[in-house]
Amino acid sequence: MNREEYDKFRILLNIFDGKRQSENGGYPGYPGVITDVDLARHFEGQIALGFCVDTSSLNTQRITARFAAIDIDQLFAERLPIFEEAFAALKLERRCFITGGSAPTKGKIILPLIDGIARDRVADFLLWILKTAHGISPRLIPDSPRNGDLELYPRIPRHETDSAGVVRIGGRNIARGGDLESFAMLDGSPIDFSAIESCSRNRVVCTVRKLRGPAELPHPVRIREATNKGYSWDKFTTGVRGIFCQLMSFAYYCRRRYKAGEDALSNYRAIIEAIVRVSPDLDNPSPKYKDQRNPLKRELEELNAWGCVQREAIWNPKVASKRIPGAKRVYEALCYLVACRELDPHCFAATYENVADFTGLSKRAVQKASRTAVKHGLVVLLHPGRSRGKKRRGLSAMYGLIGAGETRTHVWQCACRSKRLQERFREAPVVGCSDPFALEPPTLEFWDLVRMNVRQVQASKAWALREAERIVVDKSKAEAGFKNAVGV
């Protein structure tokens, strides 16, 4: 490799820092910056460098992956055709390359990435590639990574064992006296680093969503804690009454998440049975009235709390038209999010990425479908949020769901009474409107006007005031708000 190829290699894999291999084959110490001289010595075989696969060494708040690697320590020649078929199925065969290992039975598959993809996303992506290869040949490819056999980089922290967080690519294994390792395309053809296109974030995220399907949210924290730690009489000062109130809240949750029917009841029973297994103290008499009956076991037999909840009305979503499948899908995903996290359906915040995970769609598709849902009266956009800036945190959009028998005006009035929306308008004021609560339900046209930056408003103040008067109900307040915003 010449100097020009070194530069292409560094740019392609986002090489910045790494560790030097020790005599025993490990990579001790803290990562250091890799210079051009270090890279040249590495490929000449004078030293061996392990390149950092993510940005965890930089102590950044958001850890991203630099590149991805599949390290095969056994049966490389036999396994390579299987992975070639798996990458071809995902249309990634021209986006990766291979390199040899310290022995003929070893090798690596390297997948270059666009800089800035979250490490956990890439780790999930590699797991799905491994799952695809396992489906092709279960005999040769394991269903999960194994140290000393087949390893994936970057690793999800919960799956990580002993790892230095670096991967040696090219050069030679000095500790084992190996030869210089060559590069090739996945099919064995000569490599051209300039012809390899890095895998984009959209390809990684969308492929995982397509293969995985819609994500499923776990139970809320309070239910998970109850099923893990259990209940005791000391926790409930009101005795049986306090436990009965908890059971009613569980019943409400199951009704909202699983709708009516046997599915909701079976999940409700499963939650109580899990709590019973870790709550032996409730078999003792109650502290106040010395009742010998376990309140949880009694609920499983009599379903008293469940029966009380069945007589109460709960919020129900409206039936969305099948003519707008994207908007219908997003609306149902938002309803699912609200039910699983026990949010107020008339005022809550959600990101496009969260909704995309629940629907299996891309963020761009979710953004378009959300606007369609607002236009067709399924959702009210309460606040559009804002992007993250310098010394300013980003804010996700806030929505209100229009349920069965509800109107846009009703949802807006309910949202205006929410403290969360009041705090949002204080933190992110509406440019051009000093009192957003005096509005009718805001429309997409109104929020499109608000999104105009201050420069656009300053360029044509009269037009901005005229548009504000057309959309905003209180014209005097709108005029004052715009004057304050543009410094008239």
The second-level CATH architecture of the largest domain is Alpha-Beta Complex
Helical stretch tally? 19
Overall domain count: 4
Quick one: CATH superfamily of the largest domain?
A: HP0184-like
Mean pLDDT: 83
Counted beta strands: 12
Q: Gyration radius, to the nearest Å?
A: 29 Å
Q: Biggest sheet: strands side by side, in what order?
A: 7-4-6-5-9
The biggest sheet amounts to: 5 strands, antiparallel
The CATH topology of the largest domain is what? DNA primase, PRIM domain
CATH class identity of the largest domain: Alpha Beta
Structural class: alpha+beta
Our measurement of the CA-to-CA distance between the termini, rounded to an integer number of angstroms, reads 63 Å
* Percent range of helical residues: 40-55%
Any idea what the shape is?
A: globular
β content, as a range?
5-15%
